[in-house]
Automatic annotation (TrEMBL):
InterPro entries: EcsC. This is EcsC family protein. It holds the Pfam family EcsC. It comes from Marinicrinis lubricantis.
Length: 250
């Protein structure tokens, strides 16, 4: 390993330690207030709309587990340094962030019906990003185990503190768990917790998108922030795996 790679991996490890700390720190007043407001707005959304959101999540989870729709055309990157992979991941995060911003603005401008249509569309954008990042870090999403890992990453980004801690522990010990997912089980897991946690975490930003008059601005703003958060979570999740799978050799 040359001096730059050695230095860069040391820097990444420090960043990962800071990220881990931030994952579990106590949420502030603004977060709690926005969460309460989000729950109230969630209750105000018509039941059919809530069912549409839940259905979109279920369809997306099934598509991820079967590999339908999301496996990228871009090949798995076999030979590259961690620095090169990080730069490529940042490039793809920016690409998908711009797509999400445009999509959020377009659907947000259309009121509640198009605003609701944004949920499955935005879910697809986020999953496409996760599959691309997997290939960038050298993990082939044609493998069932890699697709399960993607769902845990998604759950890490969009879940309660308790579920986030469980997801993080699973991600950190993935090397020991990998053989559990050599092939799909006879009965697909329901991932009910995943569906419920994601719906509950559709925060104040996305709820505001459904309001007339401000939907376009809020839709772009919300999708921008949420895509960046997911990309950051995915990048760090794969950094953890990459460092575990490629121990430093001096």
């Amino acid at each position: 390993m040359d001096h730059f790679e050695d230095y860069y991996e040391g820097r990444v490890k420090r960043e990962l330690a800071e990220w881990e700390k931030s994952l579990f720190e106590e949420k502030g007043f603004l977060f709690k207030a926005s969460k309460q407001m989000s729950m109230k707005m969630n209750q105000a959304i018509p039941k059919k709309a809530q069912q549409a959101i839940t259905s979109a999540v279920k369809v997306t989870v099934k598509s991820v587990l079967t590999g339908a729709k999301f496996i990228p055309k871009n090949p798995v990157i076999k030979e590259a340094s961690l620095y090169e992979r990080d730069q490529k991941a940042i490039e793809f995060m920016d690409k998908y962030r711009k797509i999400a911003v445009a999509e959020g603005a377009a659907t947000g401008a259309g009121g509640i019906l198009l605003g609701l249509a944004d949920f499955p569309a935005f879910l697809a954008i986020k999953m496409n990003l996760l599959f691309e990042i997997a290939h960038i870090y050298g993990y082939d999403t044609r493998s069932y185990a890699e697709r399960v890992f993607i769902l845990y990453l998604f759950q890490l980004a969009f879940s309660s503190n308790e579920t986030r801690r469980i997801s993080y522990e699973i991600i950190c010990s993935w090397k020991d768990r990998l053989t559990r997912y050599d092939a799909p089980p006879v009965t697909e897991p329901e991932w009910e917790t995943f569906q419920q946690e994601y719906r509950d975490s559709i925060d104040f930003r996305k709820m505001l998108q459904l309001l007339p008059g401000i939907g376009a601005i809020v839709g772009a703003w919300a999708n921008n922030g949420l895509t960046k958060e997911l990309g950051h979570t995915a990048m760090n999740g794969y950094r953890l795996r990459y460092l575990a799978d490629h121990p430093v050799k001096h």
